[in-house]
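USER: For my understanding, would you kindly supply a protein sequence with its structure tokens?

ASSISTANT:
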Amino acid sequence: MNNSTALNRTRVEGLLIRSIYIYDYDIRRLSDEQLLQRAWEIVRKCYNLRHYSLCRTAFELLLDMVEENRLITLGLPGTKQEVLFYLETKKQQTNIELDLEQFEDLLRVVNDEFNQINNLVYPNQPSSFQILRAEIKRLKVQDLINQIPLKKQELEQLINTVAEQLNRAERYILEKLLQENSRILQTNDNFNVERLNELKEVLSETLIQEELQTLLNKQSEIFYLAKHLENLQTE
């Protein structure tokens, strides 16, 4: 096979393999020319613009070769049925190649993002994933250590603000409400949710639901921050 024939084969084969996309259509009724036309319409959409002329050349070459029955000389399908069989045998290989290409693209993106993060932590210094992970973990632990006491102060201020609106009995119920919510968070058991709702209902006669929910949300936030800190420190 000379260089010209090899180039032609590559062009034709590329078009045939990409014609797999036509499997979304009912192609059993199409003639050879209609089949190839459908392939061209779809291939044209997925081809990069800079490959447009090559794709068009391959398509025109393919039409000519089908009409002149010259595909066989390249070892390629010559009829509609042979085209379909060829596509079916090539389909698995093509999908693997596409998956590999997508994986390589994803890997490039991940590496680029890693380098961007690394440059934030260690400007202009090469690093490894393990070193970067350890540094990010250290920074996160320090952030949580500083953040949790501030969140607790915010919760305490919220509790005091709400308590000012309550009488002595209602303050006792508020204390029970927070204890119940803490128990639910620690046990990860919603069995006592009904009891929690009953306490909220009693306090709703004095407080609006938004005030109560803000308290519970802040308490939950502190719990999960503390849990996150504990997990990081015990890794």
